[in-house]
Design a protein that fits this description.
Length: 496
């Protein structure tokens, strides 16, 4: 048979659309042509495939070979198509049975020796193959990643010959195995933070409702220390969430967090907009997508360029980011919890009891003006972190452990999930009307407070979401005046 069809997967963001590799052998001048919108690395696969076949002691047909990667309008990049192209040539030339290829999908780059090398995005490809009810075959280095799907339909092939032997039914390929996880690194302990009870309370509220948090105060008051303790009190990540996190890291160049641990990303304030949001000629996920399912910590918030901070506005609302390029549009998940820290003024000591601040009102206004109102609106909690004298700090008793606080956080999250199926921070405007109902007296109280503080409609909704979280923490069915008052107290920067 001079025509063979092999299935593989492309990579578009964290999605893996199916690609059909059609190989046709015909009479004519010997050569290999690849069509179907291949980029340079795919065009070069003809040389890798030819050497891999010859070095594996297989025949490279001395005929005119046409390889079509369908659909033709989907850009193809990388060396992931080497293995399916080689197998397609072997099937078209009758060296392996072509009828067995329909039940498999192949992804892998070939070395000149015929060994199968790893590629990016093996996990999204394995998940898509599982949905298509086919057996996924890739290289050993991608096997551990593919095995995270939990299915027994992921096989690994060390080289091209092993894949051929499997298709001939002579030597079955081994199942992909999840590698032994390294010892989990426990997150920093909340009990190490002495004092700062208000900030720790706000941290627990943020964890309970999935809210964004901004801490502001003089240098050295523990803002970074508090932020690093948030992952330790968040609810344990579920397998489905961990799979989504692993899929993002599968298509990136970053080292993934340990399995079943939430990511914690803390980019430097010199980061550019593409570094934060993702991008490039071949778009790759940025910091906000690498923080998906976990925490994005932005220290020294006003030191980030304003246009860099503005790119946060859309993903904070939608939980995803879309990167548009001339060739295609790429979507990455970006449902993260934003924790930010900043000084109250350029020198950092405005409002300090020692009166060390020498900044003029105009300097302070310009400094805070680097953070736009729309971005502040999207941050639910604005919490001052004041300086504590070292003598008082040494006498302060040790606080609650992360495990104790995490227990309460999980209880509050369960209340929200049971009621609406998602965290309070994810409530939409239509949900707020029914889930965050107030009695007439409290409605008047909140309306008066909103008018006095000059809050926007978005900030008004954020207050109600935080109040709903406070009610869940107190195991209260409804939102009371006390919950509203505390939620309003966390809109400090709106009043400055």
């Amino acid at each position: 048979m001079s025509l063979a069809v092999v299935y593989t997967r492309a990579l578009v963001g964290v999605e893996a659309p199916q690609v059909t590799v059609e190989v046709h052998l015909s009479n004519g001048l010997p050569g290999l042509a690849i069509v179907g919108l291949p980029e340079t690395a795919v065009k070069e696969s003809k040389d890798r495939v030819r050497s891999a076949l010859l070095n594996s002691h297989l025949e490279f047909p001395a005929r005119r070979i046409t390889v079509n990667l369908a659909p033709a309008d989907l850009p193809k990049e990388g060396g992931r198509y080497d293995l399916p192209i080689a197998l397609g040539i072997l099937a078209a030339s009758g060296q392996i049975p072509s009828e067995k290829l329909a039940g498999y999908e192949f992804v892998g780059e070939l070395a000149l020796s015929g060994e199968v090398r790893p590629v990016k995005g093996a996990l999204p490809a394995a998940l898509a193959c599982q949905t298509a009810q086919r057996v996924f075959i890739t290289g050993p280095d991608n096997g551990g990643e593919a095995a995270l799907t939990g299915e027994q339909s992921c096989l690994t092939s060390a080289n091209l010959l092993r894949a051929c032997a499997h298709l001939h039914g002579r030597e079955p390929l081994p199942q992909a195995q999840v590698p032994d996880a390294p010892p989990a690194i426990p997150p920093p302990e909340l009990a190490d933070v002495r004092g700062q009870e208000q900030a720790k309370r706000a941290l627990e509220i943020a964890a309970s409702g999935g809210h964004n948090l901004l801490m502001y105060g003089p240098p050295g008051t523990g803002k970074t220390m508090l932020a690093s303790r948030l992952p330790g009190i968040l609810p344990p990540i579920q397998t489905r969430e961990a799979m989504a996190v692993a899929a993002v890291y599968s298509v990136s160049d970053s080292t993934p967090p340990p399995w079943l641990q939430r990511p914690f990303r803390a980019p430097h304030h010199s980061a550019s907009a593409p570094a934060l949001v993702g991008g490039g000629g071949s778009p790759r996920p940025g910091e906000i997508s690498l923080a998906h399912g976990g925490v994005l910590f932005l220290d020294e918030l006003p030191e980030f360029q304003r246009q860099v901070l503005e790119v946060l506005r859309e993903p904070l609302e939608s939980g995803e980011i879309r990167i548009s390029r001339a060739k295609a549009q790429t979507r990455y998940p970006a449902r993260f919890q934003l924790i930010a820290a900043m000084n109250p003024c350029p020198c950092g000591y405005f409002g300090d009891n020692d009166s060390r601040c020498r900044c003029t009102p105009d300097q302070i206004r310009r400094y805070r003006g680097k953070i736009s109102g729309p971005l502040l609106d999207r941050i639910d909690l604005h919490v001052p972190v004041t300086a504590v004298p070292p003598t008082e700090l040494n006498r302060a008793p040790a606080g609650e452990s992360s495990a104790q606080v995490q227990t309460r956080v999980e209880r509050a999250r369960r209340c929200a999930l049971k009621r609406q199926g998602k965290s309070n921070s994810e409530l939409e405007a239509k949900d707020i009307e029914t889930i965050c109902q107030l009695n007439p007296t409290d409605e008047e109280y909140l309306a008066a407070a909103v008018n006095k503080l000059g809050l926007s409609t978005r900030a008004y909704h954020r207050v109600l979401k935080v109040a709903r979280t406070l009610a869940d923490m107190g195991q209260s069915e409804g939102i009371s005046r006390q919950h509203l008052a505390e939620a309003l107290s966390y809109r400090g920067l709106d009043r400055v």
